[in-house]
């Protein structure tokens, strides 16, 4: 069967355009129409025996289940990891993850750590907070031009 | 003052404070003129921080303690509400009956790690201060000017 594409590959030189991510559809603005919770999974690891996991074990037995019930949108996984320090890792929608070691922490401190991970979005926080408002809408009143003003009269 | 609606109660309408139900015809005419325009902006006061916002904006405010990620907030301190040709300036605030501005809480992050070293040489004075500023990030989900008939 005669295939147009094969013809083009055989007889013409096709140069692939420089690969660059461009979207034809508009990028989703989380929070405008619908809100998708940015933290999708929390992983807890602990050791049954070691002392650094004492606070973690207390947290898992007392506070984790009410937390999980309050946050049904987050997948929570608990795995024992013998002879290792306890760890809390959060996975986010943008593919990044944030892990914090909770060794030798009390149950209350671990709760604060877990809330910190839950309230984050996974973006790096180095240069994000320089501007108070981040906007993509064009200027509402238009950009000032000397041709649209009335000359100053004395 | 912010009023937060938890996700489960989003369908319930927040009760408005007492407002005069009748506005003069000239007021209604003016607001309808503003409403007929395409895009609006608002100068909004969030815990005494002022922002100039339009729809879909991301606002980075100081940490709001009584708010959770995913909450929908109704902003009720607006100093100025305007469009391309018309503006309403509040004295000091615009009446709540004129607008409906909503924001969603996206996240409550912490800023970069900052270390401040203080030293006075030959005086045995050395201090190390660590700091991570706390923020709340909001997404302005809608700015509407209400219709008056």
Average pLDDT number of chain A: 87
Number of helices of chain B: 1
Q: How would a crystallographer describe the biggest sheet of chain B?
A: 5 strands, antiparallel
Number of helices of chain A: 4
Q: What name does CATH use for the topology of one domain in chain A?
A: Glutaredoxin
Family (chain B): Belongs to the bacterial ribosomal protein bL21 family.
Protein name (chain B): Large ribosomal subunit protein bL21m
GO biological process, one term (chain B): translation
Organism (chain B): Dentiscutata erythropus
Question: Explain this structure to me?
Answer:
Chain A is of the alpha+beta class and 154 residues long. Chain A has a domain at 46-119: Glutaredoxin, CATH 3.40.30.10. Helix content of chain A is 23%, strand content 18%. Chain A has helices at 4-11, 54-62, 64-70, 107-118, and strands spanning 39-46, 75-80, 87-92, 97-101, 133-134. In chain A, a hairpin with a 4-residue loop joins strand 3 (87-92) and strand 4. The radius of gyration of chain A is 26 Å and the shape is elongated. With 149 residues, chain B is mainly β. Chain B has one domain (24-145). In chain B, 7% of the residues lie in helices and 44% in strands. Chain B is built from one helix and eleven strands; from the N terminus they run βαββββββββββ. In chain B, strands 1-5-8-11-4 form a five-stranded antiparallel β-sheet. Chain B has a four-stranded antiparallel β-sheet with strand order 3-2-6-7, with no helix packed on it. In chain B, a hairpin with a 2-residue loop joins strand 2 (41-46) and strand 3. Chain B is elongated. Chain B starts with a strand and ends with a strand. The interface between A and B is medium-sized, with 29 and 36 residues. Strand 5 (133-134) of chain A pairs antiparallel with strand 4 of chain B.
């Amino acid at each position: 069967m005669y295939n147009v594409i094969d013809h083009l590959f055989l007889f013409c030189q096709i140069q692939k355009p420089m690969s660059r991510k461009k979207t034809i559809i508009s990028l989703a603005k989380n929070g405008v129409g619908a809100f998708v919770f940015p933290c999708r999974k929390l992983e807890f690891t602990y050791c049954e025996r070691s002392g650094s996991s004492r606070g973690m074990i207390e947290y898992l037995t007392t506070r984790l289940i009410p937390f999980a019930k309050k946050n049904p949108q987050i997948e929570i996984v608990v795995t024992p990891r013998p002879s290792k320090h306890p760890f809390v890792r959060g996975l986010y929608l943008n593919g990044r993850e944030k892990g914090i070691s909770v060794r030798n922490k009390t149950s209350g401190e671990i709760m604060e750590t877990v809330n910190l991970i839950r309230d984050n979005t996974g973006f790096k926080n180095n240069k994000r907070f320089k501007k108070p408002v981040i906007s993509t809408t064009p200027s509402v009143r238009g950009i000032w031009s000397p041709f649209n003003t009335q000359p100053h009269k004395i | 003052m912010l009023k937060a609606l938890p996700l489960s109660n989003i369908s319930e309408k927040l009760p408005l404070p007492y407002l005069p139900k009748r506005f003069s015809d000239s007021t209604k005419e003016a607001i309808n003129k503003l409403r007929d325009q395409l895009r609006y902006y608002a100068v909004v006061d969030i815990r005494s921080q002022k922002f100039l916002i339009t729809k879909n904006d991301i606002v980075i405010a100081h940490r709001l303690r009584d708010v959770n990620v995913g909450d929908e907030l109704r902003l009720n301190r607006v100093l100025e509400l305007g469009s391309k040709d018309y503006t309403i300036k509040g004295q000091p605030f615009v009446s709540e009956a004129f607008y409906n501005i909503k924001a969603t809480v996206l996240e409550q992050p912490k800023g970069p790690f900052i270390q401040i070293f203080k030293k006075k040489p030959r005086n045995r004075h050395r201090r190390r201060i660590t700091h991570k500023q706390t923020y709340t990030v909001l997404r302005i989900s809608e700015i509407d000017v209400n219709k008056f008939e």
